[in-house]
Design a protein that fits this description.
The chain is α/β, with parallel strands linked by helices and 298 residues long. The chain is built from 10 helices and 10 strands. It folds into 2 domains: 142 residues, Rossmann fold (3-Layer(aba) Sandwich); 75 residues, 3-Layer(aba) Sandwich (Rossmann fold), CATH 3.40.50.
Amino acid sequence: MCVQTSRRPKYVKGKQSAINIFELLDKKTTIDADKDGIEVQSLEGFASLEKVEFAYPSRPDFKLLNGVDLKVLPSQTVALVGPSGCGKSTIIALLERWYEAAQGRVIVDHHNIKDMQLNNLRTNMALVGQEPVLFDVSIGENIRYGIPDGQTVDQEQVVAAAKASNIHDFVMSLPQAYDTRVGDKGSQLSGGQKQRIAIARALIRNPKILLLDEATSALDSESEKLVQKALDNARAGRTTIVIAHRLSTIQDSDLILVVKDGVIAESGRHNELVTLGGVYANLCAKQNLVISVPDAAI
């Protein structure tokens, strides 16, 4: 009797888990990854949101984005800043088409992304997040995971991506170099080393649009410098959209957009926004950021 009683909770959990899995498999998604659409061989790198409104399915009554308008030009670096929960990561999620906008249009290379073939759209983008996900295989294999299905790369391309992400010298200092296993979830590496491998994995697909979601926020100052140098290399020649809480990392961006209350509250370069004395200037003050003197004041 005791044995049966002890087994019952596991049976109940197993049964409920099976029910959840079948519900997930039966759920109809509004985004069809296999649907035919426009396929672009090489993006220019233009992206925009036009009067976009959005609420997460789990909170349909709370509108997170309330008419967002933004435009990113090819090869431009645009930074999204603002308080936590204001919708910065949501903007990236909509560009990747993880969700559909409730109202408005999301445009990539002058095409509504609803009309584009989903895999083709994402092949031309790469995302580096705050917490990199590495697998318990070699460093080389982790970098190769960035290659889209059906494509192959040689070792020279892996090395080139590693050099661009400022990790090659470290890898070559290891006894097995690129064949070194990283351990479960990259446990054999530091946070900065994992992040630079994640950047190499993003770069090996040569994306035209690079998305960086607080890629340095979880690092110590020394690791941040190494990763920031890798990110500076990665931005060259491609459109880059950066989310950052540490404003010191995005001062040289071509355009800074301040997201607040579901809209773009302020836009401009660093000195312009500081001179404006609004939300961005207050964020700089809170971080004790040394503010350079605007050119107009010299």
